[in-house]
Amino acid sequence: MATKPGTTTNTIDRFLASELAGEIEFLTARNRSLGSARANKLLGPLGLKVRSYSVLSLACSGMAPTQRELAEFLLLDPSQIVPLVDELESRGLVGRAADPNDRRSKVITCTNEGMQLYKKARVATAEGEDIAMANLSKSEKETLRELLARIAFPQ
Amino acid sequence: MATKPGTTTNTIDRFLASELAGEIEFLTARNRSLGSARANKLLGPLGLKVRSYSVLSLACSGMAPTQRELAEFLLLDPSQIVPLVDELESRGLVGRAADPNDRRSKVITCTNEGMQLYKKARVATAEGEDIAMANLSKSEKETLRELLARIAFPQ
DNA sequence: ACTTAATCGTTGACTTTATCAAGAGTTTAC
DNA sequence: GTAAACTCTTGATAAAGTCAACGATTAAGT
Fold first, then answer.
1. Is there a domain that residue B152 lies in?
2. Backbone angles phi, psi at A95, to 5 degrees
3. Which of A30, A70, A129, B53 is a Cys-bridge partner for B152, taking CB atoms 3.0 to 4.6 Å apart?
């Protein structure tokens, strides 16, 4: 009997002391995997995934992102933005508008329905965040948010 | 309030004030993307990627992980572990040993060469971590590490 | 003004990664 | 002792990442 069937926490605890478990890149990868799986589950009933949610969120930000800007901010290839916007557009949630200053670019804007869905989706992702950080105090959450932002957007 | 699109000011800065940029799940996903790309580049000369490095690291931990445990700790499907171990094994870096207590399981152990390569790889990932957290003080780094661990391994 | 180069969205080909089901061998449970 | 559960493995399929090239448009150079 090497491992008791049904108890999955034993395995994790066994490797908490490993050098890998202390590496921030590993912890980040693990948190991303846990977080996106949870977010996808919460967004599923709305017909969204983390990717399409991110695009919808920026489309609803009032900042009029172009597809190129979406790719850069989300760290995706521009060709990956196309089917994401296609799907949201086909559902009437966002629209492609010609940029008057540069007709090569297409500005992504959200429709009223897109905004309504985004508000629901935002509640879902906030719930996921609460679950993820259930063990953290309010000030710890804000500390974590600030430190993550300084790494995600180095000056 | 739509900001003027197409302006050549830094694209990232334009969206720092977006609601998405304040979401921890988004920041985590972005950090993971930046970090794994950087780590893969640093590990490339050693013939490793973040995935194979993670397996090698645990194999060299002295904790004798089984493939099932590797999958659980790394949040991968067990079938994904197979080709990872295959590749490391074919290079003589790790070995599959029958678990004497349970002959279904295979314990992954590292060879001398595996350990030597791991030590070099560990230097590379530490360098990546230094680059990622260049803007953080030493105490901020440890705070971040602890907060990430509490999310990655909820009790 | 006119040619050349660069940019944006898009398509398509291709590789890598993720997800799932099923099978052979082994261990556990009843 | 038989049935159920577990581990590794294979294979099929879907999703995601990477890269080159094209038409339309803009910018740069002369």
1. no
2. -140, 155
3. A30
